[in-house]
UniProtKB/TrEMBL annotation, chain A:
One of its GO terms (molecular function) is ATP binding. Residues 2-225 form the ABC transporter domain. It holds the Pfam family ABC_tran. Keywords: ATP-binding, Nucleotide-binding, Transport. It comes from Flavilitoribacter nigricans (strain ATCC 23147 / DSM 23189 / NBRC 102662 / NCIMB 1420 / SS-2) (Lewinella nigricans). This is Phosphonate ABC transporter ATP-binding protein. Gene3D superfamilies: P-loop containing nucleotide triphosphate hydrolases. One of its GO terms (cellular component) is plasma membrane. PANTHER family: ABC TRANSPORTER ATP-BINDING PROTEIN YTRE, IMPORT ATP-BINDING PROTEIN. InterPro entries: AAA+_ATPase, ABC_transporter-like_ATP-bd, ABC_transporter-like_CS, ABC_transpr_LolD-like, MacB-like_ATP-bd, P-loop_NTPase.
Automatic annotation (TrEMBL), chain B:
GO terms for cellular component: plasma membrane. This is ABC transporter permease. It is a multi-pass membrane protein. Keywords: Cell membrane, Membrane, Transmembrane, Transmembrane helix. Residues 289-393, 673-782 form the ABC3 transporter permease C-terminal domain. It is found in: Cell membrane. The chain crosses the membrane at residues 21-42, 283-305, 330-356, 376-393, 425-445, 670-694, 722-741, 753-776. GO terms for molecular function: transmembrane transporter activity. Pfam families: FtsX (PF02687), MacB_PCD (PF12704).
């Protein structure tokens, strides 16, 4: 599913150059649920952004479904993101001007899905994340856990093959966090590949495999299942 | 998808009310100004184009050269008519016209005085003013006929059918109404209430008959209607040199004829060296440019506020990109937002134009209306709307859509240096244009003031003038006695022109000490009664005034200083000069220069000759203790006694003089208006921008205050950048304004020299306005409690 090899990423600011990823390689199989852990600043988010085609690596190889995507231009990347990838962020990143329903519907609009079909699918996922009763609320009117459930709903609406989650429970209390983890597990059980960055050993135990990073490299792996 | 964009945009509008308000108000003002100027430009350009077949209509212009200077006038000699009619192929119709005068029309007890022209038989077949009754080919055939406009007909006859009815002209000629014209629209160069047959003028004025074969008398205008398919290029070579061929007397003046098409009459009135050299078109162009500038200034507000707000919208862009939006989707989204905002502004703008149209029409003396009923107008408006939306929205659209998703999602959206610079550059453009407009306004008003302060050489105070009809001329001595006897008036005189005009121009062909190489001196001529100078309050500075027994002075003239200077006479009194080629007269006096013509040019050399004929003006000065309001009804009574056919009409000399500034005052008013609006719109933008800056730096300001910063320091922190920008704008505006004004000023012989103080003043004005605008935000930020701004993080 995902295969990256010897990926490097450096950030240059005026004075210093930071190496965020340093020849990192990673293999994710279809249907797998991978947790990525490591100290702050070790490059986890950077890695996830590259996997999600939001960012470009400076070197290395990136195969998505066996296709080399490292040289795709922004338009092709946007298409791939729409088609294959769903994002869940630590800070939810819902659009404040849109209601719950409209936030979830947005990817379908970009995908050109017809109105009837859209309604069916949005209602289905909203139901599944148990937020149907809040469909006409705006994000600011929801609790953090509810917002994250909406974000998950939005991430899965296009039925992506992969979900990338960057500390999805980082801003949530343990109960809300557990609900979100439950959702992700269910999605994984129905076949979605998940790569999740987390600081929580508890959350990491929901996954199949934990990849540990340090200074832009993978340093250890532990298989849980 | 589009619905989604509009939804987001609408909610954004409501949520950020202040931002939307500033944006919409600014854009609406800009669009309204541009639309208004657009309508005005359209109006000015539409002059005489309402006439059917106006492309075939031409007026003859005559050019002649004296001492290397080529003059261009419309007046032609009558023998030309026959030549045009018979000898030149391709001309379908020829019609003379006089210059248009006020005459009295009387029907029973109803009398009115209004403007009308004596025109040739074929006139309405050339200038096809639409006739409601009567045939264009025949209505002017009978010398005793008159063609009225609808309005005049109603004024004279009420609801009764005017056709075939009798109208008495100037209390002497019995005429029959032969046709009714639709009212002449405001965008017609010729303005009249009725037309009279030229043959009537020939019947009643011997001098017209006498001029029939006279090549040296140029008193009328000539219009040509070219045959279909014939154009200017074909006719011009045929007529160009007619004058030199037909009249050897004229040859030394290199006389030429040319044609001016009807479409150019209004806009291209000025000729230089015998060629069209612009005219009103320059103002039309100038204000067209200003209109565009104001629109650009308004669009810049939109761009600046949108990019400033972009920091807040960055997250939305990031999210949209993360879920697969392509850049073009985002561009379309932001352009639709701009379209929405522009549409709202446009609606408001149209409303604004609708509301101010009446006052604007009064200000500029036009008859503009919004052509709501014309599909073309709406088509243009849609194009205008789209273009504005594109102009305003393109920069934000491309800028916002270029955000890097990772970076903006991570939160700390770094300030993009290019965006900040772009914003500054745009503010510079705005303020340079606004300040240039302020400078221009100041200079235009300085010029007007400068000319208004010029000594006129006669006393305008309490001086009144009226036109003299035949009746008044006949009764001149009697009315003069009555006026003086009433005690209302202290002086009475008559002359061949009022205090603000010279109606005759002639030549002094010989004078003592004349250099034989030198051609004649072109000179203005005023025929004046013996009391003229006393009544006008003009000062005789050498020699003497006319004798009270004018007969004794029948071969005397008085010249003004300008004429003496031109003739280079050291000791003018008693010298004999030759006037009009054949009349020898003696200079008995020199009068101080007085501005009878344009106050913007040097005083015209002028000759004053004793009057023995009927004249066109009676001048009278009210006694010092008499109030005009009380005097006028009594004056009317006296005038009615001797002038029963005319309603009593008068002008005050000071008002007539003030009218000479009409165009300049108009330009000044318009420039002032648009400068005000430009600076208003610019400040709106600055206000919004300052608000964003203050908000962006809320936390910083809070921390600074915790650390002990004073209000003054906070103010300086927030204002410094803008003040600097406005200062740089002042520097940029200076050459911009100079570039436009130099040309404008050059057309006036009597003009100010531009002082650097004006620029300093304009800059200071702009700075003060800026300080007020941004201080509001700075002080608000500076006085807020620091806790509030820190807690919100
Ligand atoms: N835009 C940027 N410019 C410069 N350096 C950056 C940028 N983004 C990240 N870095 C640096 O790259 C390194 C990796 O950052 P990254 O955000 O991937 O860490 P992380 O593992 O996600 O940390 P955390 O657990 O705190 O989220 C860090 O040292 C960070 O300072
Ligand atoms: Mg991170």
């Amino acid at each position: 599913m995902i295969s990256i090899h010897n990926i490097a990423k450096r950030y240059r600011t005026d004075e210093v150059e930071t190496t965020a990823l340093n020849g990192l390689s990673l293999e994710v199989k279809p249907g797998e649920f991978v947790a990525i852990m490591g100290p702050s600043g070790c490059g986890k988010s950077t890695l996830l952004n590259i996997l999600g085609l939001l960012d470009e690596a400076d070197g290395g190889q990136f195969l998505l479904d066996g296709i080399d995507v490292s040289r795709y231009n922004e338009n092709r990347r946007a298409e791939l993101r729409m088609e294959k990838i769903g994002f869940v962020f630590q800070n939810f990143n819902l659009i404040d001007e849109l209601t719950v329903y409209e936030n979830v519907e947005l990817p379908l609009l970009y995908n050109g899905i017809k109105a009837g079909e859209r309604k069916k699918r949005v209602e289905y996922v909203l139901d599944k994340v148990q937020i149907m009763h809040r469909r006409n609320h705006y994000p600011t009117q929801l609790s953090g856990g509810q917002q994250q459930r909406v974000a998950v709903a939005r991430a899965v609406i296009n039925q992506p093959a992969i979900i990338l989650a960057d500390e999805p429970t980082g801003n949530l209390d343990s109960q809300n966090g557990n609900e979100v983890m439950q959702l992700l597990t269910e999605l994984n059980e129905s076949g979605t590949t998940i790569v999740m960055v987390t600081h929580s050993e508890h959350d990491a135990r929901f996954s199949h495999r934990i990849v540990r990073m340090l200074d832009g490299q993978t340093v250890a792996e532990s298989v849980l299942v | 998808m589009f619905r989604n964009y509009i939804k987001i945009a609408l909610r954004g509008l409501v949520k950020h009310r202040a931002y939307s308000f500033i944006n919409i108000l600014g854009l609406a003002t800009g669009m309204a100004v541009t639309l208004l100027i657009g309508l005005w430009v359209y109006h000015e350009a539409s002059y005489d184009r309402f006439l059917p077949d106006y492309e075939q209509v031409y007026q003859i212009k005559r050019h002649y050269t004296i001492e290397g200077e080529t003059h261009t006038i419309e007046a032609i000699a009558l023998p030309l008519v026959e030549i045009m009619e018979n000898d030149i192929p391709g001309i379908a119709h020829v019609a003379l016209s006089d210059w248009g005068n006020a005459h009295s029309l009387m029907v029973g007890e109803t009398k009115l005085s209004s403007q009308g022209y004596f025109v040739g038989e074929d006139f309405l077949q050339i200038l096809k003013y639409p006739l409601l009754r009567g045939e264009p080919a025949t209505v002017l055939n009978d010398p005793n006929s008159i063609v009225l406009t609808e309005q005049t007909a109603t004024a004279l006859f009420g609801d009764a059918d005017p056709m075939g009815q009798a109208v008495k002209l100037d209390n002497s000629q019995e005429l029959t109404v032969s046709g009714i014209l639709r009212d002449v629209p405001g965008n017609s160069t010729m303005q009249f209430s009725y037309l009279l047959p030229f043959s009537l003028l020939e019947n009643i004025s011997p001098y017209v008959r006498e001029a029939r074969n006279e090549w040296l008398v140029n008193s009328f205008m000539l219009y040509l209607g070219l045959a279909p398919g014939v154009d200017q290029e074909q006719i011009t070579p045929l007529i160009e040199n007619i004058l030199a061929e037909k009249s050897p007397d004229l040859k030394p003046y290199d006389p030429r004829l040319s044609l001016q098409p009807a479409a150019d009459w209004h806009l291209y009135g000025r000729y230089e060296n015998g060629r069209p050299a612009g005219g009103y078109i320059e103002y039309v162009r100038l204000f067209g440019i200003i209109g565009l500038l104001v629109l650009i200034i308004a669009c810049i507000n939109f761009m600046n506020l949108a990019t400033a707000r972009s920091e807040k919208r960055a997250k939305e862009v990031g999210v949209r990109k993360a879920i697969g939006s392509k850049r073009k989707h985002l561009i379309v989204q932001f352009l639709s937002e701009s379209l929405l905002l522009t549409t709202v502004s446009f609606a408001l703008g149209i409303l604004l134009v609708y509301l101010v149209l009446e006052p604007f029409n009064q200000l500029v003396g036009s008859e503009i209306r919004i052509p709501f009923d014309q599909p073309l107008f709406w088509l243009l408006m849609v194009a205008y709307l789209l273009l504005t939306a594109l102009l305003a929205g393109s920069r934000p659209a491309f800028y916002l859509s270029s955000f890097n998703a990772v970076r903006v999602l991570k939160g700390g959206m770094q300030k993009q240096r290019s965006a900040v610079w772009g914003r500054k550059a745009l503010v510079l453009i705005q303020f340079s244009c606004s300040i240039a407009l302020i400078i221009s306004t100041l200079i235009i008003y300085q010029q007007i003031r400068h000319v208004q302060d010029r000594p006129t050489g006669y006393l305008r105070d309490r001086l009144m003038m009226s036109e003299m009809s035949e009746d008044l001329n006949r009764n001149y001595e009697a009315i003069k006695a009555d006026l003086l006897g009433s005690g209302l008036v202290e002086q009475v005189a008559k002359a061949s022109g009022s205090a603000s005009e010279i109606n005759f121009f002639t030549i002094i062909s010989n004078w003592p000490g004349r250099n034989p190489d030198r051609a004649h001196l072109e000179i203005g001529a005023v025929r004046a009664s013996e009391t003229y100078f006393k009544t006008m309050g003009m000062e005789i500075i050498a020699g003497r005034d006319f004798k009270s027994n004018l007969e004794a002075d029948s071969h005397s003239v008085i010249l003004n200083e300008a004429a003496i200077r031109q003739l280079q006479l050291d000791d003018p009194i008693g010298q004999t000069i030759n006037w009009n080629r054949n009349q020898n007269v003696t200079i008995v006096g020199v009068v101080k220069d007085a501005i009878l013509l344009s106050p913007f040019t040097p005083v015209h050399p002028t000759l004053f000759a004793p009057s023995f004929n009927h004249e066109s003006s009676i001048l009278y000065r009210l006694s010092p203790n008499v109030s005009p309001r009380e005097a006028i009804p009594q004056l009317a009574e006296i005038f009615d006694r001797y002038n029963p056919a005319f309603p009593y009409e008068y002008q005050f000399a000071d008002e007539a003089y003030a009218r000479k500034f009409q165009l300049e005052l108009l330009v000044g008013k318009l420039a002032g208006l648009f400068a005000g609006l430009a600076i208003f719109v610019s400040c709106l933008g600055l206000f919004g921008l300052a608000a964003f800056m203050a908000e962006q730096r809320r936390k910083e300001i809070g921390i600074r205050k915790v650390l002990g910063a004073t209000l003054m320091q906070i103010w300086l922190l927030l204002s410094r950048e803008f003040l600097l920008l406005v200062l740089i704008s002042c520097v940029l505006a200076t050459p911009l304004a100079l570039y436009f004004l130099q040309d404008w000023l050059l057309q006036y012989d009597y003009r100010i020299s531009i002082s650097p103080l004006t620029f300093v003043l304009a800059g200071l004005l702009a700075l003060i306005i800026t300080v007020i605008t941004i201080s509001f935000q700075a002080i608000r930020a500076g006085t807020a409690r620091p806790v509030d701004s820190l807690r919100s993080e």
